[in-house]
Amino acid sequence: MPEFKVRAITRTDREQWAPLWRAYLTFYQAAESAEVTSATWARIFDPLEPVHALVAERDDRLIGFSHYLFQRSTWLLNPQCYLQDLYVGEDKRGRGVGRALIGAVVGAAKEAGAPRVFWNTHETNAVARRLYDAVAERTGFIQYRIEPL
Length: 149
What we know:
The chain is an alpha+beta fold. Helix content is 35%, strand content 23%. The protein has helices at residues 14-27, 34-45, 97-112, 126-135, and strands at residues 5-8, 51-58, 61-71, 80-88, 117-118. The longest helix is centred in the last third of the chain and has 16 residues, at 97-112.
């Protein structure tokens, strides 16, 4: 695979970002909502929002993305960084793109003074978990959720 680069997302990336976003949602069996997609896109570029995005690009085509945000913690003085979404196109996996996107988020967190980067994945996501086990510590925490709406 020719070289790729990781960079901050720009407003002109929406047309290429959208199919990757859809594929990501499909992977997690989540229905796409035009309203949520538009809100997510707007939040990425709103300076009052803690949401940020990076993209991986090869030959002027987006091949992956990461969305991350900074959040307060009662355990830390500085905000921690939550890597909320990470996706690499199926045909581009296993070539260092995911690792590079994680590394770029870690770099952004370090620059922002965030002492921690963390994320979740589904227990059945074996391919991604191999990467995650190689680059991060599995903490043993189990997520519980209530959806009141």
